[in-house]
Specification:
The protein is an all-beta fold and 136 residues long. It has strands at 32-37, 44-49, 64-69, 74-79, 90-94, 103-108, 120-125. The chain has a 4-stranded antiparallel sheet with strand order 1-2-3-4, with no helix packed on it. The chain has a 3-stranded antiparallel sheet with strand order 5-6-7, with no helix packed on it.
Length: 136
């Protein structure tokens, strides 16, 4: 199934127009695989990368989440120390062990060759991004 640009419905929060979509900076989101909007930081979008679909050899991407605002302007990255990005494929935000704290869940679950002995889901608190230039 294919969608033409005019078929995309605006949801009232994220504005989809050609004029405000920007090319990512040098890190090149060549294989974005997960996207989630912030709860503690409304107007922020977190994006992760999985294993490159063009690659014939498995390669890991940095263990980083890329941060964009709702107009697709790059804001920075979050380095997830102590983790590996074997093949991050999905993101979610929800509750966790501390009441009132929003957590980002990172699904390192990609296994297109069915060769991984285990899969991992990382959980990190959604960071305070109040220092970013507003409005998001």
């Amino acid at each position: 199934m294919a969608y033409r640009y005019r078929d995309v419905v605006k949801n009232g929060y994220f504005e989809l127009t050609h004029s405000n979509v920007q090319t990512p900076p040098e890190h090149q989101l060549e294989s974005s695989s997960g996207l989630v909007t912030g709860r503690s930081n409304p107007g922020i979008v977190y994006i992760c990368q999985g294993q490159g679909f063009r690659s014939h050899h498995p390669q890991s991407h940095p263990a980083e989440l890329y941060v964009y605002d709702k107009k697709a302007v790059y804001q920075g990255k979050i380095i997830v120390e102590g983790s590996d990005n074997v093949n991050w494929q999905d993101l979610a935000i929800g509750p966790g062990p501390v009441e009132g704290v929003n957590y980002i869940y990172i699904g390192d679950i990609g296994d297109k060759d069915t060769s991984r002995p285990s899969l991992t889901i990382y959980r990190i608190p959604e960071p305070d991004l109040g220092g970013l230039q507003k409005p998001f």
